[in-house]
Design a protein that fits this description.
The protein folds into 2 domains: about 20-50 and about 290-380, Aspartate Aminotransferase, domain 1, CATH 3.90.1150.10; about 55-285, Type I PLP-dependent aspartate aminotransferase-like (Major domain) (Aspartate Aminotransferase, domain 2, 3-Layer(aba) Sandwich). The protein is built from 15 helices and 13 strands. The protein has helices spanning about 5, 15-20, 30-35, 55-65, 80-90, 105-115, 130-135, 160-165, 190-200, 225-230, 260-265, 275-285, 290-310, 335-340, 365-380; strands at about 45, 95-100, 120-125, 140-145, 170-180, 205-210, 235-240, 250-255, 315, 325, 345, 345-350, 355-360. The protein has a 7-stranded mixed β-sheet with strand order 2-8-7-6-5-3-4, sandwiched between helices. It has a 4-stranded antiparallel β-sheet with strand order 9-10-13-12, covered by helices on one side. Strands 1-11 form a two-stranded parallel ribbon. The longest helix has 24 residues, at about 290-310.
Length: about 375
């Protein structure tokens, strides 16, 4: 037990899982690094944000809201307009949509509704850091399925769905799959995922986290919308934080069976999306050309980064997302620190159990060049 809890007796009553929790570490903010180094041109390639920012249409819509008396009023707690837009976009009834303050919010709802003592969440090793946090905060167990091995010929550190199937136990109430996965960038083929969905018993909820879905090559992109009708125990989560460039506003959503959406809504705080987020998300969804620009920039810059890092004899994991995870064959923290000294922030992977790796988000061409120049300087 931590010392604060012994000094403050009431803290002993906190949920045991929360007391033992390691807080999520968001990494160094760009302002902090700039203050430390006394520079004003640091680059942050650490959180998989959209280097193009949001759609110009979003900026225009938000600017128009600044002087609007609407800010003094509560937002539309039902998110009617945004849900209508999402409903049209996916061809799904609004009753099957749940809005989240980021898709992280949705993951929390799922945990609150389905996890607790005597229950377990199941997810892959080296998957999104939020799953273990929400499970532990509910005093639930975690079944962590080992990832495919580092020397796997096609998908090192990928999700091992055969391993998931084998490790399934009756107390698992929620299975988290991420496609493509953060922090590895690895992906699963649609036919593999569907075979797994067929295998999972209908009383077990499967969460398919598609935060990076737009970056998948079209040939690898599952029709998860169609699966929802065949597998009522499936919920698909999407976010406006990545391709849509709205990470700072916090908006995400899920598609599911309407009965599940109804349950999730019961634990949702009534106004979980603010007025700006609701408008921004609605306008962003309507500008798919901006998404295409982001995806195209990512494709060309991602292959340049991959090529140049391979030329430095580094191990670059296969990725269908907007980041590359790169192995140094030794503890990567000296490289991480040296990059910081060069004014470049990337994401260390030690907390994900991959201490030899760093994750680099794909930035603008200029940002990527800064990163590559720094890396070459450090490794020379
Ligand atoms: C970024 C990310 C999310 C989305 O986070 P938001 O709360 O929507 O900003 C969800 N899942 C994964 C795997 C992510 O990397």
């Amino acid at each position: 037990m931590n010392t604060m809890a012994t000094e403050q007796p009431y803290l002993k009553n906190a949920i045991a899982g929360v007391l033992a929790l390691e807080p999520y570490s968001p990494g160094m903010p760009i302002d902090e690094l700039q203050r430390r180094l006394g520079i004003d041109n640091a680059v942050k390639l650490a959180s998989n944000e959209n280097p193009l920012g949001p759609s110009p249409k979003v900026k225009e819509a938000l600017a128009g809201m600044i002087n609007d008396s609407d800010i003094a009023r509560y937002p539309d707690g039902a998110g009617f307009k945004l849900k209508k837009k999402i409903s049209e976009f996916h061809g799904i009834e609004p009753e099957r949509i749940t809005l989240g303050n980021g898709s992280n919010d949705i993951i929390e709802f799922i945990a609150r509704v389905f996890l607790g003592p005597g229950r377990a969440a199941m997810y892959s090793a080296h998957a999104f850091a939020v799953y273990p946090i929400v499970a532990q905060a509910q005093d639930a167990e975690s079944v962590v399925v080992p990832a495919l091995p580092e020397d796997h010929p096609d998908m090192p550190f990928g999700h091992d769905l055969a391993g998931f199937a084998k490790a399934l136990r009756p107390d698992v109430t929620v299975i988290f799959l991420v496609n493509p996965n953060n922090p590895t960038g690895t992906w699963m083929r649609p036919d593999e995922i569907e075979a797994f969905l067929k295998h999972v018993p209908s009383h077990t909820l499967v969460v398919l986290d598609e935060a990076y879905q737009e970056f998948l090559d079209p040939s690898l992109r599952p029709d998860s919308r169609a699966w929802l009708d065949r597998y009522p125990n499936l919920i698909v989560t999407r976010t406006f934080s990545k391709t849509y460039g709205l990470a700072g506003l916090r908006a995400g959503y899920s598609l599911s069976h309407r009965a599940l959406a109804d349950l999730l809504n019961r634990v949702r705080q009534p106004f979980n999306l603010n007025s700006f987020a609701l408008v921004a998300a609605e306008v962003a969804l309507g500008d798919q050309e901006h998404v295409t620009r982001a995806v195209e920039l990512n494709a060309s810059e991602s292959s340049r980064l991959r090529r140049e890092m391979k030329a430095l004899s580094l191990k670059v994991l296969p990725s269908q997302a907007n980041f590359l995870t790169v192995g140094f064959g030794r503890d990567s923290s000296p490289v991480h620190r040296a990059l910081l000294e060069h004014g470049v922030i990337v994401r260390p992977m030690a907390s994900y159990g991959m201490p030899q790796y760093l994750r680099v988000s794909v930035g603008t061409p200029a940002e990527n060049t800064r990163f590559l120049d720094a890396l070459k300087d450090i490794l020379k």
